Amino acid sequence: MKELVRLDLVEEGIAVLSLQDQVKKNAFRDEFIDVLLARLEELAGLEEARVCILRGLPDVFCAGADKDLLLELAEGNRAASDIVLPKVVLDLPIPVIAAIEGHAIGGGLALALCCDLIVLARESRYGCSFMNMGFTPGMGITRLLELAVGPYVAAEMMLGGQFFKGSRFEHATGFNYVLPRAEVFPKALQLARRIAEKPRPALTTLKRNLSLPRRQAFEETITAETFMHQLCFADPETGRRIRENYTPAAPRETT
Fold it and tell me: Does an H or E element contain 120, and which?
């Protein structure tokens, strides 16, 4: 049986963390989250690694939260603050490159935004589906997305549940590269090789300094997001909207 999440040291100093739950499209559910957290803990202690590439499936990087998990939130059986993945990725000691070959949706996009370098695919779709299901964005994305694409584009994506093709971000935002899908991982590997030449102590020191704005933004926004979730999930309408509007793949409406 294929592992849900795989961690490999593919070259000297270069680790690849692969999200490979084909059935659920890497959606966040308890089993997947537990395995991913275990692999992240393993990565944090992997002294041989000086840089990591985070990648998903060819068609979907990560579909965000699973429908059942969202319904648990709406029914009050789980707190949104239970989902600690963004903080764990932000706190990793080595630089992480997100190779986002496929679609990244909601919390899946938030996970990618916790990385230090990001390579997008022109033809894939990226967006925030939270409001389409009747609740406000979470996992720190209210600030992380703003840091990546600017406040006005971030507002459009969040308020309208808007999805954009990767080509929309080319030459217009802070993402490192926007390339054809087939070129995303090779570019990430090229970046990783250059980083892996550097000494680990210097890399960990610089990574911690450079990631400080994102780590601070996450800490500042998580309380506000939790409060907004409490308001939204208290509305019975939210559960209905989740049941009707949840989709494990990116919607067709794309700019």
Answer: strand 117-121
